[in-house]
Every structure is written in structure tokens, then in C-alpha cells.
Amino acid sequence: MTAVDFTAWRHPVRAVACPDCKQPAGAMCERPSGHGASDFHAARKAEADRVFIKQHGEDAWIERTPAGWTIHPAGRAKEQRQDKPRTELTAAGEQYVMAGCERQEPRQGAQLDLWR
Ligand SMILES: [Zn+2]
Fold first, then answer.
1. Cβ atoms within 10 Å of 83's Cβ, excluding its own
2. What is the distance in A from the centroid of ligand 1 to the CA of 41?
């Protein structure tokens, strides 16, 4: 099986063919009438999930950036490590860095939330 490029399309779900309406990778889902559907079929989203996890692992996630889509391998695990309180050495000794001053908001959700 060739690798699926989830960053190649306007939406990652487009990277897989639809098991429901049989549209190929890259094409939007279609209703039985042939009109374009407003959303992807549930079976296609599930297939995209399955392939994404198989290919990139359960910790990976995908993010929409100004330049397109970026896949972050093991992103969540890394974020969790960064959530540990940090200290810095000041003139008054070692002090905790104020929460919220340095740290970014933790990422919410995994790749699966993005297309559901
Ligand atoms: Zn479809």
C-alpha cells in the first residue's frame, strides 16, 4: 500500500477514497443524485482516521497552518511533557515560572476531532 499524503488536499479526509459513494482520493463526496455533498460520508471519515493512525501512529495529529496542513508526530506526548512546571534561577533563587506567562495553552483534542 502506498503512503497516503494527508497534507496534499484542502481537507485531510480527501486523501482517502470514499467507501460509500466511491469518490476517489481528492474528490468531494457525492450524493446518489450526483450533486456534491456538503460533508464527507461518515465511512470516509472513519477510513481517514484508520489510515492516519496506521500510518502516523496514535500520538500524531494534524494541524491546519497558513501554508496548508502539517502532521505532528507524537505531538500530544510532547505537549504533555511541556506541561510540567518549569523553574528558572533568579536573583532570589530558583522560582517557578508563572503558569500562563510562558506556557502555551495545551492542545485540545487529537487529530480525530478535526474532521468530525
Ligand atoms: Zn462519500
1. 11
2. 4
